[in-house]
Amino acid sequence: MRTLVAPGRSRTGYAFALVITTIVVTVVFVLPLLWVVLSAMKPAAELARVPPTVLPLTWQPETYVEAWRLMDLGRYFLNTIVVAVGTWAVQLAVDVPAAYALSRLKPVLGKGILGMMLLTLMMPAAVLLVPTYLTVADLGLLNNPVALWLLGAANAFTVFLLKRFFDQLPVEVLEAAKIDGAGQLTLLWRVVLPLSRPILAVVSIFAVVAAWKDFIWPLLVFSDPARQTLSVALQRFAPDTPVNLMLAGLVLASAPVVGLFLVFQRHVLAGLTAGGVKG
To answer: CA 20 to 30 Å from 105, out of 65, 181, 227, 273?
Structure first.
């Protein structure tokens, strides 16, 4: 932003450019969300009007209640919560020890192992769908949330973020704990994890949001409609559901993750910047 205003110019010009940029960015991100929220409260006939109305001419907030009842969203919310919470728990249980081992235990070929993990991020997800599905089918995990938990367990990006944070932890604190007789498990549980709350909050939010909005993998795993997640269920209802009810369902499905980010956005920013500067 400072490059938009030449050095030596008045602070007023810099403040003006900052305000304008902030307004533009806010409108770009917030306007589509606000449009969907308001459109869900319009009658279906009004949604088809040309030109479209910005505010509903006839307000129908009860559309949200009707969408919840008609599509039985409570069932699919519960299914999605089970998938998201399980994925989060399994991912932390696998990735935290892996990142700690790569950061502090310095295994042989540790850099090569991390490099191979990061290489998996370059592979298109579609390439892995068929072999992963066949593996899950052979294990008898179809229509079972464990299939989604296991898929999210080993996440190379999460391991990388955690390792980078663990690398920046003060060595003096860890050495003092070792002198007091703490083993590696005690050191991880009682020292490293309490110091790592910012980055744990970040990877937790990433894990929950990714599991909440995932579509392709739940679509393949859950052939039983009663076990499907929100993203899959809403797609199944779309052809036979009025547009305003569909929009209401989309808003309700998105509200938890949007609220989660708004509540923990400070932790996300702190976690992403923590450990970036030594000293």
So the answer is: 273
